[in-house]
Amino acid sequence: MDFFQLLVSGIANGCVYGLIALGFVMIYKATEAVNFAQGDFMMLGAFVMIGFGNSGYWGLPFGVAIVLTLVVMGALGYLIDRLLLRRVAGESQTAIIILTIALGFVMRFIAGIIWGHSPQSLENPLAGQELRLAGITLGMEDVAVILVTVALTVGLFFFFGRTKLGLAMQAASQNQLAAYYMGIPVKRVQGFIWALSGVVAGIAGILFATKGSVDPTTGLIGIKAFAAAVIGGFGSLPGALLGGLVIGIIEPFASRYMPAGYSQIAPYALLLIVLVFRPSGLFSQLRNKKV
User: Fold this and answer.
1) Among 19, 10, 38, which Cα is nearest to 151's?
2) What would the pLDDT profile of 57-106 be if each residue is shown by its tens digit?
3) HSE-up of residue 102 (Cα within 13 Å, Cβ side)
4) Is 217 exposed, middle or buried (0-12, 13-18, 19+ CB in 10 A)?
5) What is the pLDDT of residues 244-261, one digit of tens each?
6) For the whole model, what pTM was predicted?
7) 48 touches 72 (CB < 8 A)
């Protein structure tokens, strides 16, 4: 039974990593930029939800707090693109990477000022509830994380592959100038994808906060999410989820069966192996640019 308990716990944690990795992949698919502040977006979404939902703050109904949190995170993503990213349009990828890293530092600083540096938990209706199946005890928080992540991943996969807006986003990523001449509003499309990425990060933050405590350094798990995106194949939405699941499952088993000093490096050792034997990732979507 311990095996299945570790497996379920790993899957739930991996789903959170996968959601953050989805944010990396979405922005990359639409803009070919890498947002290294995606983990901090998740952390900020968790704190915004705590601010709206916890009784010590606004104490709004849980459903209302979720909606407001996603609106705030979507607006934040759009404003970051509108006020910051567009000003460095045409610059090197290095400049954009440095900008997003600096943005992560700013988010952690702001979160520390507003909510403090002590760990905080989200008051939620799933706390303490359990589901028992064949002798296995599942926390309802873990079940909610898994179900929401699967539904969101499927929805985003069909959005990018079947809708006009999703195809327009991929066209803008392939060749922005050609997309512009084809009548695609490239800047508006990129603003939308940053807003959508903010919403996804907000969902990840809410789910993470239902499982455990949050502090301003929580956003550093974005490093693991980036590793998940690389393992799955940068550019693949299902690959991002798979990479997150792989890392999430490895962690509890490594902690249980490996020496304490080595268990922490297990996800990164896997990343190294994948980069050596399959550099494009497990579910890579390699394609030639169209001009």
Assistant:
1) 19
2) 898 999 999 999 999 999 999 999 888 888 887 777 788 889 999 999 99
3) 9
4) middle
5) 999 999 988 888 887 766
6) 0.88
7) yes
